[in-house]
Hints:
By secondary structure, this protein is α/β, with parallel strands linked by helices. Helix 13 crosses helix 15 (482-491). The protein starts with a strand and ends with a helix. The strands form four sheets. Strands 7, 8, 9, 10, 11, 14, 15, 16 and 18 form a nine-stranded mixed sheet that branches. 36% of the residues lie in helices and 21% in strands.
Amino acid sequence: METRFRDIxxxxxxADLLVVPVQEKKLEQAxxxxxxxxxxxxxxxxxxxxxxxxxxxxxxxxxxxxxxxSSHLLLLGMGQAKEIESDVWRKAGARARREAAGVxxxxxxxxxxxxxxxxxAAAAIVEGMLLASYQFNKYRSNSKxxxxxxxxxxxxxxLSRSAALEKSIATVLRTMPGVYLARDLINEPPSVTTARFLxxxxxxxxxxxxxxxxxxxxxxxxxMKLNGLLAVNRGSQEEPRFIKIHYRPSGKPHKRIALxxxxxxxxxxxxxxxxxxxxxxxxxxxxxxxxxxxxxxRLPHLGLDIEVTxxxxxxxxxxxxxxxxxxxxIRYLNGKTIEVLNTDAEGRLxxxxxxxxxxQQKPDYMINLATLTGACMVALGTxxxxxxxxxxxxxxxxxxxxxxxxxxxxxxxxxxxxRELIKSSVADMKNIGGSHGGAITAxxxxxxxxxxxxxxxxxxxxxxxxxxxxxxxxxxxTGFGVRTVLKxxxxx
Length: 492
């Protein structure tokens, strides 16, 4: 999608779709008066009949009928001026994209006069359009993909292009393929997205200057003592993989970061079998791994002067003849042991491998992403991820980055008293706690494998997969976490 900036008025701009953002109850703005004059008063009539007020999320589509150089006019409600932040612009861009698809518009012109930072607003609009443009129609026999937007023009009288605007938009354009990649990986059927497939996709997409990819098979996994991954894999006919993606900039890196993603390609629960309804979307259980692969794939394009290593332990979790059993004990490479009492709490078992391995390298920060617990969804719903951290400055920075990207995170506590709930009578800990606080006890298990390294755990069980269409994503994988992680890395 090409973007450009023009010094021109609403009456003269030519496009398939002319978009005008409108603040709530600010219907006497100069652009609307100018448009109403050209439309012979019909626009104000339509506004009154439709009771359009400019409330956030509202929209009014009006055919220009040859009275404007543009074919269609779209008024987008932005809400109260004091409430217009990046996420409002992002959703406005997404709405404009969906309305454009409805009328077959491929050339969009948007009246651009934000009250706040123009760089943030422009980037959010472009991001929203691209997020809403994503489709996964690979398996639909009668699908007709909508035309891609070829050109987006930001305009207003006196508007000029700046280096800061260009940079903000360029960053979005370089980032979004990572979100698309994560969505694609999540949306593929689980019989396609095996551990082997994830390894192949990491090799295919994580390429460029400074990037290397290693995909370890079962023999190397055993040699590295990644026993949690081996234990979860025991019920499967598909061999596990451990994916290690390394990015090193051309110059001396000033920070070293480890990203760890849960890669359970399908979760049946193992011998602790899930109900059939609960399995329907369990292809999503590798969303953390997909987010890490998506983020790592963009690092060569962003030119960050930090060193980043991605670790993705990946397998499915099935109740095969040799599946691990409740009561089994796993010994990890750092010497700690976990008693497995529920084979459906398997994500923490493989993440412990990745965390312990990453901790050996002593990075400056460790961040893991995982669809880890239903308990986090009970607490925060389907649009907010849980954030746990042993380092408050790291947590604060991730929360700021999440707010900037519109990927909602909420910090939850690492309650040290709850460690009593994961004590085992035969091992250092057990893989489940009590009937309450499940997201916290899961995080406490992970914390046992990070030592004193600043670490954050993102439980993305809710926002990783959309059960129905949302403004920014159709039903399916969302790619949640890619943008927040890349934003965080860019701040170091």
